[in-house]
Each structure stands twice: as structure tokens, then as C-alpha cells.
Design brief:
Methylamine Dehydrogenase, Chain H; 4-stranded antiparallel β-sheet; 2 helices
Length: 369
């Protein structure tokens, strides 16, 4: 456990840096002595500040065929495609959306259309893609229900994705448009990592260029090292784990995509640290697919089939913020239709602007060079 504790400390330090940088951090100069002229970054920060949500929320609004950036005040400040403007290529069913390492790009997997896309935030254009729109396959250049596409390294030149119906996790070179590595055997449905996988649906980066994997046909989170070897396996109390990822303190948080869904946080040793599983009432979940811990400790989650994205206070287990109306799909302001993906933009970071800090939320210590 000594080795595990070491990278946990490194992980916590890296995410803490994001929290401090994104939320303004500690300052030796009292606010009363601060310069009157604020930078654009600080102006963005102050405009969006909210103690419950220290930043903005990126939402993949799947059945509305759009990606939104929403402030804590529930104002849409960025959207793709732009309403009334035809995008530079067909765009439909974004299943996930994650910021790139410098917050100037968004990567999304249009799962039901068999394609991964990278969107330039400033110009609102698709600038890179892999797959054939609407055509599933396993040959070079094809995917079959890609999930959780991520810009894996700090340079944004390597893409990972869980290629669900091809039973594999792929590493794609952005430059060459080729799969340079894969885990699992294409077409072999068998939960026997690292040899084969049963419909992998999560491939989140881990320390030292590793990966945290979940499978539709399993009940575990599997930590792989940078060679694809199993480091440890974490067994969950619920079936259908979705998108397990690390918290700022090195624990694992996971949503469970069930009719009466749940969210669980566990230590790598297998201890349940926190659980959210109301079976009725306004807080009950319906097929949540992603949960992540924010820098302030609150939990961001997509409540997919309740048509909302929520933030939960882990101490009270109460929903303290939501965008969307529970069980009421819609496209008007304040409504969503099966939001299947989300990400977090720390306060103080300008999407599409010049952000010298870069992103460490996915680039864990030792990951991405």
C-alpha cells in the first residue's frame, strides 16, 4: 500500500493545483489592495463564481444533438452547433464531451453515429474526426459504438476511447489517424482482463499513464498500468458500472446505469466511503452514466433518463443544483433531453482562450509525459 499512497498524494496535489488555480487560490495580497483593473480571466471568474459549483458545467445533451456550457446561474454561454448555424459537418447524438488539455478544444463521441470528433471552441468547428458517420465497423478507420473519447496526453495528440461493440479500448494517433494500440480482442466478448473485455464503457486516465476501465458486462473497475497489465480490481456493490474515475484524493467514484441508479465512492482497497442511492423522491436517479468529484468535494453527475445534470452535497446527500427538469425532456432554455456526458470548467479558465496552466484534471502525475 506504500506505493499506492505515494501516487494518491501526487494525484491529490495535482488536482488541488487545479482547484487553487481555477478558484483563484490563496493570495498573500488582501483583496482590498488588489489592482482595480481586472484581467479577462478574473472577470470570467467573478461572473461565474458560486460556492456550490466553482466553475461552469459542460453538458453533452445527447438527444438534442448539442453540447452546452452552462454557468452555475444556468445561463448558456457556449453552444455547439450554434443555433441557426449549420455546422461544418453532420453532428448528432453526442454521448460525452470533455475539454482538451488546454481548454481550447472539446472531444466528443457521437456514439450512435460511430464517430469521434474534436471541436475547436473558439471557431465552433469540427477540426478532427475518426470513424465513418453512421457506419459501424472494426476495420481500420471504423468504430462500433465508441464511448468516453478523451484527449489522453497534455499535447492533445493521443486519443483513447472504449469501442464498446468491438470489445476493445483503442489508442488513436491524432496525427496519423491510426490505432496505435488496443486493449482487448476485437469481437471477443469475455470479461477476462487484460486479455479480453466485455463491452468496455469506461477508459479514464490514471497515474503513470495507466487507465481505469469499466465494462458493461462486469461489476468492477480495473486499474491498468501503461502496458495494459492489471494492477488491481475493485468490485462494486452494483451492476452496470459506468465511467469510473479517480477523485482528487485518489479514491474511485462510479455511477451505475440502472433504472434505480446509484453513485458510489470507494477506496482502492475496496472500502465503501460514500454512497448515493435514493429509490424514490426528487433525488432518485434514472440511469446515471457519469459522476465526478468537484474540487470542492461536491459531486457532479448526469442523471440521463431524468433529463438533468445535478450537483450533490455529499454530506447532506441533497441535490443542491440541477440543470434540466426531472423526467421532462425538452430543448427550450433550462431543459435537456438525455444528457449523457458532462465535464467541469474551473472558474478563472476561459474556454478557447490562452490558459497557460493547462489541464491536470485528466493529466495525472506521470500521465502524458
Amino acid at each position: 500500500m506504500r506505493r499506492l499512497a505515494a501516487w494518491e498524494k501526487g494525484l491529490a496535489a495535482a488536482i488541488l493545483m487545479v482547484g487553487l488555480a481555477g478558484c483563484g487560490g490563496a493570495s498573500k495580497t488582501p483583496s482590498s489592495k488588489a489592482p482595480k483593473k481586472a484581467s479577462k480571466v478574473l472577470a470570467w471568474k467573478s461572473r461565474h463564481y458560486n460556492p456550490a459549483i466553482p466553475g461552469d458545467i459542460l453538458i453533452a445533451d445527447k438527444r438534442n444533438h448539442r453540447i452546452l456550457l452552462v454557468t452555475p446561474g444556468k445561463r448558456i454561454v457556449w453552444q455547439f452547433p450554434t443555433p441557426g448555424v449549420k455546422p461544418n459537418r453532420r453532428f448528432a447524438f453526442p454521448d460525452d464531451a470533455f475539454f482538451g488539455p488546454h481548454f481550447d478544444e472539446i472531444i466528443t463521441n457521437e456514439e450512435d453515429r460511430q464517430i469521434i470528433s474534436i471541436i475547436n471552441i473558439k471557431h465552433k468547428k469540427v477540426v478532427w474526426e475518426y470513424g465513418h458517420f453512421g457506419v459501424p465497423g472494426s476495420n481500420p478507420g471504423y468504430l462500433n459504438y465508441p464511448d468516453d473519447a478523451l484527449l489522453y496526453d497534455r499535447q492533445g495528440g493521443l486519443i483513447t476511447a472504449a469501442d464498446i461493440r468491438n470489445q476493445r479500448i483503442v489508442y488513436i494517433s491524432r496525427k496519423t489517424h491510426r490505432i496505435i494500440k488496443q486493449y482487448g480482442q476485437t469481437g471477443v466478448y469475455n470479461a477476462n482482463p487484460p486479455i479480453s473485455y466485455a463491452a468496455p464503457n469506461g477508459d479514464f486516465p490514471a497515474p503513470h499513464r495507466g487507465m481505469l476501465v469499466t465494462q458493461i458486462g462486469g461489476q468492477d473497475a480495473i486499474l491498468l498500468n501503461n502496458k495494459g497489465q492489471v494492477v488491481w480490481t475493485l468490485h462494486f456493490p452494483f451492476a452496470y458500472p459506468s465511467d469510473a474515475n479517480f477523485t482528487p484524493h485518489g479514491n474511485v467514484i462510479c455511477a451505475f446505469y440502472n433504472r434505480h441508479g446509484a453513485i458510489v465512492k470507494m477506496s482502492p482497497s475496496g472500502k465503501i466511503l460514500w454512497q448515493y442511492h435514493p429509490k424514490s423522491g426528487s433525488g432518485a436517479l434514472n440511469r446515471p452514466s457519469l459522476a465526478m468529484e468537484l474540487p470542492n468535494g461536491n459531486i457532479l453527475a448526469t442523471d440521463d433518463h431524468n433529463d438533468r445534470v445535478i450537483v450533490i452535497n455529499p454530506k447532506t446527500k441533497k441535490i443542491i443544483w440541477q440543470y434540466g427538469h426531472k423526467g421532462i425532456p425538452g430543448k427550450a432554455k433550462g431543459y435537456l433531453n438525455v444528457p449523457d456526458g458532462a465535464d467541469f470548467l474551473p472558474a478563472g479558465i476561459v474556454p478557447g482562450g490562452k490558459n497557460p496552466l493547462g489541464r491536470t484534471l485528466w493529466s495525472y502525475p506521470g500521465n502524458g509525459g
